[in-house]
Amino acid sequence: MATIDSKQIPEQLRLDSQVCFPLYSAANEVVRAYRPHLSAHDLSYLQYLVLMVLWEEKELEVKALGAKLNLDSGTLSPLLKRMEAKGLVLRKRGSIDERVRLISTTKKGEGIRLAVTDIPQRVACQLGLEMEELSVLKRLCEKVLTKV
Amino acid sequence: MATIDSKQIPEQLRLDSQVCFPLYSAANEVVRAYRPHLSAHDLSYLQYLVLMVLWEEKELEVKALGAKLNLDSGTLSPLLKRMEAKGLVLRKRGSIDERVRLISTTKKGEGIRLAVTDIPQRVACQLGLEMEELSVLKRLCEKVLTKV
DNA sequence: CACAACTAAATTGCGTACAATTTACTTTGA
DNA sequence: TCAAAGTAAATTGTACGCAATTTAGTTGTG
Question: Distance between CA B52 and CA B49 in Å, rounded?
């Protein structure tokens, strides 16, 4: 009898024995958790990430921004255009090297900072993890990021 | 002096003090890590997830599939149509309730199972985490999934 | 039976992600 | 010096992910 039934699915191919699916799904879940908080300020999660980088860095090339966020120009270029159209960022041409775009926040983008300060904490609470667990989760995700 | 400079960015608004960004980025990274392995079999990561569910369940309504994967019909309907077009799944109408679609694998979808058995392990190795760390990461992501 | 309330899936529209290519500019080396 | 190689960003095309709506079928209540 060589029938294949679900009992014969190798352990490692079961959805609930893999790390990757919960990681993927938890990330979706967290972005969902941010959504209502951010859409109150007309921001997507990615737009919020870009603003966070710009609040720390003032001015940045698209490539450097991509290095920080682990994203390429195919994702960032159209995003930054939309953000420019909303008045959230500036996209200045580099004066020395005219290929580069120098991205920076506007007054409006800067102004959002105070309004969103408490969102991370509120979302973190919703996650239902202890501080200790959050910090372990963060460390493990960062380890994944450095290795792959 | 009420100028706002980067020194005054509250701790919780810094990219590297939040869990959410590494989680989001690690999930992207893991999907990227799967991509070359799966595209060798002409599968996307989500198609692979769907197949894993179907290998365990034989036949499933779209809603039940969505509950397993934490996704809605807006994502699944077009995905399942593409998978049907590729010959990976069947989309049978329910005979009792004609609203539902009963999703199941085809022979072809079944056949892929053996071919992808070793992918999770290979990707897990690439992540550079110990078994212990993988299991902690998995547990914490699952805790996030139950809570939010 | 009638018909409103409900439900499953599909559709629409928008914003990511990313591979692959293109465009525009810069650097290099014979 | 000037074409070839290199590089930054943008574009193209495809596939998610999801809110909001629509379509089609079912159920509950009088």
Answer: 5
Grouping H, G, I as helix, E, B as strand and the rest as coil, residue A13 is: helix
Q: How many CB atoms lie under 10 A from the CB of residue B17? A: 13
Q: How far is CA B34 from CA A17, A28, A73, B73, B119, in A?
A: 16, 17, 21, 24, 8
Question: For residue range B83-123, what is the model confidence (pLDDT) as tens digits?
Answer: 999 999 999 999 999 999 999 999 999 999 999 999 999 99
Contact A28 B70 (CB under 8 A): yes
Distance CA A104, CA A60 (A): 7
What pLDDT shows up at residue A12? Answer: 72
Element (H, E) at B105: strand B101-105
User: Among A20, A25, A147, whose Cβ lies nearest the Cβ of B70?
Assistant: A25
Contact, A80 vs A60, CB < 8 A?
no
Distances (CA, A) of A128 to A5, B21, B140, B143: 37, 17, 10, 8
Q: Is the minimum CB–CB distance between B146 and chain A shorter than 8 Å?
A: yes
* pLDDT one-digit tens code per residue, A70-129: 999 999 999 999 999 999 999 999 999 999 999 999 999 999 999 999 999 999 999 999
Mean of the per-residue pLDDT values of chain B: 91
User: Taking a C-beta distance cutoff of 8 angstroms, is the pair A144, B26 a contact?
Assistant: yes
Closest alpha carbon to B111 in B57, B68, B54, B39: B54
State, as a whole number of angstroms, the distance between the CA of A78 and the C1' of D13: 14
Kindly give the parts of chain B with pLDDT less than 50.
1-6
Q: Residue A6: is it exposed, middle or buried by C-beta count within 10 angstroms (0-12/13-18/19+)?
A: exposed
Whole-angstrom Cα distance, residue B8 to residue A112?
14
B65: CB partners within 8 A, 6+ apart: B50, B53, B76, B103
